[in-house]
Design goal:
Distance between the termini: 19 Å
Structural class: alpha+beta
Radius of gyration: 15 Å
Strand content: 25-35%
Oligomer: single chain
Length: 157
């Protein structure tokens, strides 16, 4: 697993990712007939990238500020700050989501309408809650490779 701050740093191979986002204000979202107001805070959205361009292409789409809404996550990326993504080549989005099992699900069905295993692929990341150790190691490794002037900006915590 690696943590990338931009899509350009992600591999162009298939895999899974957990997009790290920060909502600065509450946001109303819908999943079918269900809706919720997500509180301000940090979120992790687990997804997969199996198509052309792999992880790099999928993350580039998520990180683009202006795009046609297609997936549930597009509601969040339109109004959130993107902090980066945890990526795992050949990984499985449900396995990444399972690693976050202790984090709350803010809206059942969000990002998982095509998944029979997961209640949602969006997790609220409570302030101060530790990430799984492999994730934390990936994040710290990325920070150590940033130029000194950028190391303090865009940090997850």
């Amino acid at each position: 697993m690696i943590f990338v701050a931009s899509a350009a740093d992600a591999p162009a191979t298939p895999g899974a990712y957990a997009l790290a986002l920060r909502l600065g204000a509450p946001l109303n979202v819908r999943v079918g007939k269900n809706s919720a107001t997500l509180p301000a805070g940090d979120y992790l959205y687990c997804g997969s990238a199996r198509g052309p361009g792999g992880l790099r292409a999928r993350l580039a789409r998520h990180m683009r500020p202006h795009k046609r809404a297609h997936w549930h996550i597009d509601q969040l990326t339109a109004g959130a700050s993107l902090l980066g993504a945890f990526v795992e080549e050949q990984g499985d989005e449900c396995a990444l989501n399972a690693a976050l099992d202790g984090f709350p699900i803010p809206l059942p069905g969000f990002g998982s309408s095509d998944c029979r295993r997961c209640a949602a692929h969006l997790r609220f990341w409570p302030e101060g809650a530790p990430l799984p150790s492999q994730w934390e190691s990936a994040r710290k490794t990325n920070e150590s490779h940033l130029p000194l002037e950028a190391a303090g900006r865009g940090r997850l915590r």
